[in-house]
Amino acid sequence: MRHLKSGRKLKRTYSHRKATLAALSASLIQHKKIWTTAAKAKETRMFVEKLITRAKNAVAQEGDGKMKNVHARRQVFAFLRDRDAVSTLFNDIAQKVANRQGGYTRVVKLGRRYGDGAELAVIELVDYNTGQEKAAAKPAAKAAKGAEKSAKPPKAEKGAQQEKKAKAAAQSEKKS
């Protein structure tokens, strides 16, 4: 029985699983959104939430000109092994989620992968809605393009391409 044994093994040894989760966590912190399998995303979520909470609490204690909490930074670095990710976590993300009580990440299932049928998912930081910002920009851009197309006269390039095709067909008929 598996009483009190949390987490997924992901068909990896302990060291391989630890390295995989560290790499996924660092990528998520740097890029704010990553695609992976659903099992890896759910497992990564557990680790990233703890790292963000530790960073948030450390930054809250540091406030008002006090010294940096070096111990918390070293604890996070011991897991992530990426200086850029640690600095991003403490400088940007921790300040942005200061008022949030948890639930810093979101896992969205995408369907199955064609090659092996694995269930794919996107894991992203909730306060960084990069997809929604891009989606809001697209309708405005499409409306602007529609206005440009109606204002412009039809292109003459299509006629030139059709003439080239006709000449090529005529030349192929002459050869045969």
Description:
The chain is mainly alpha-helical and 176 residues long. The chain has two domains: 1-128, 50s Ribosomal Protein L17, Chain: A (Alpha-Beta Complex), CATH 3.90.1030; 129-176, no CATH class. It is built from six helices and three strands. The protein has helices spanning 14-31, 38-62, 70-80, 83-96, 130-151, 157-175; strands at residues 33-37, 105-112, 119-125. The protein has a three-stranded antiparallel β-sheet with strand order 1-3-2, with helices on one face. A hairpin with a 6-residue loop joins β2 and β3 (119-125). The longest helix is centred in the N-terminal third of the chain and has 25 residues, at 38-62. The relative contact order is 0.12.
Major beta sheet summary: 3 strands, antiparallel
Q: Number of helical segments?
A: 6
Low-confidence stretches: none
Helix content: 55-70%
Q: Which strand-content bin applies to the residues?
A: 5-15%
- CATH fold descriptor of the largest domain: 50s Ribosomal Protein L17, Chain: A
Structural class by helix and strand composition: mainly alpha
Q: Cα-atom Rg, whole angstroms?
A: 26 Å
For the record, the count of structural domains works out to: 2
**CATH homologous superfamily heading of the largest domain:** Ribosomal protein L17
Mean pLDDT: 87
